[in-house]
From TrEMBL:
It is found in: Membrane. SUPFAM superfamilies: Cadherin-like. Gene3D superfamilies: Cadherins (2.60.40.60). This is Cadherin domain-containing protein. Its main location: membrane. It comes from Knipowitschia caucasica (Caucasian dwarf goby).
Amino acid sequence: MFFSLCVQVQATDADHGENGRVLYRILNGNSNGWFSINNQTGLITRGRRGLDRETSSSHVLEVEAFNSDEGSMRSSVRVIVYVDDANDEVPVFTQQQYNRLGLKETAGVGTSVIVVRATDPDTGDGGAVSYSIVSGADRKFQVDSSTGLVTTVESLDYETKTTYTMNISATDQAPPFHKGFCTVHVTLLNELDEAVAFFSAGYEASLRENIATGTEVVQVQAQSADNLNQLTYRFDPDTSPVALALFRIDSVTGRITVTGLLDREKGDTYTLTVVADDGGPKKDSTVVSITILDENDNSPEFDITSDTSVDVLEDTPMGRKVAVVLARDRDAGLNGLVNFTLVAGNMQDVFKIKTVNHTYGEVFVNALLDRESVDRYLLKVRATDNGSPPRYTDHSLTINILDVNDNAPVIQSQTGYNVSISENVGGGTSVLRVIATDRDIGPNAMLFYYITSGNQDLTFRMDRVTGEMVTRPAPPDRERQEDYHLTVTVEDDGNPPLSVGNH
């Protein structure tokens, strides 16, 4: 079952009075009290604790219907709750403070200053971020609401003001419109000091994850008109510690190289602020944006909610869904798309599996089932991604075929029985034993024996459990009746019962 706000489960009981009164309770899957159930109506609603999609996107509840705590008659059903995303996360900037040191006071209108970036783990509009300057720009700067690029909108004057500290907000696009904040510190250079300047205000590079350490990412370059001192390069100390652990910069050449293991699943973008310094106050900074490209280095993972063992009646019609598995792949793009196949245990293609949204594998009955032929299928379900080469993970699914009463009893002697007894024998004398078998199991194979015709004078009696026929205390009398044509019926205990007769 699936629902967004609430759902009502319902069970019926053919008994009357207190024996027919049905109560409900949640047995498993609700240890944290996320949900509550009305024990009278079966209505399931959210509990007092809030749900968090970012922590758990689904919950599996086992709901039981019962008559009383002491009663043995009960039934259960599984309810799967999928948590829709709510805009409950705040945008977070990659840095609390961004620095653009040494912005030329003669920078023209529209000059790129720095790029700020914030992320929001929510989905849809709740994860879309819009940037704006809250304060500190003095009408000199603006930020692109989509990209986070800060640019100049008016001419700058070092003699009027040398530094700007702006407060920039990132707002997501769904109610209640959460905001995150960062500061951007911009210092201006006096042109009379022949400031150090990077050739580019920003650099971009793309790397595949798992690339070898020592690989060059990009080379930044700056120059100083006076050329008095050797320029040195370093990362700004406010750069993310995670990025500093993965990259290094050569202080002389400005070459940035990889020093750690890049894993896109842990971080797909990094922003490095590089400072160029000639020993004086004439520093400049630039931003290096690094995008980590995905490789197919993760295999699909089956979710704990996937079915591992299910029971199916042998008369289940073809096309009926009997099991569901769930698997996800942490890779991106085609590498993260999952398809499901049955690779073992599916004798004569009795079952088939359908991939839904590259996440769910739904197992259907594809042929007629017969418990008397096969009573259990040990299926191997394979989740395969679309990478090159593809990666896969296998999952074991046991399908137990439950018996239905589809076989009538079979009497061992198909041609009947012919016996002779002496008249006047004592009561309880064994005449014969009828033997029958039934291919079903359980109550469906429990057999009962009856004399259904030919015994009008009640001369014979049959044990309904063993099938043994004996004489009654009044002995048979040949002068009164010299032969009997008895019909014995064997009936199983199924619902409805099946029977067979023999003479």
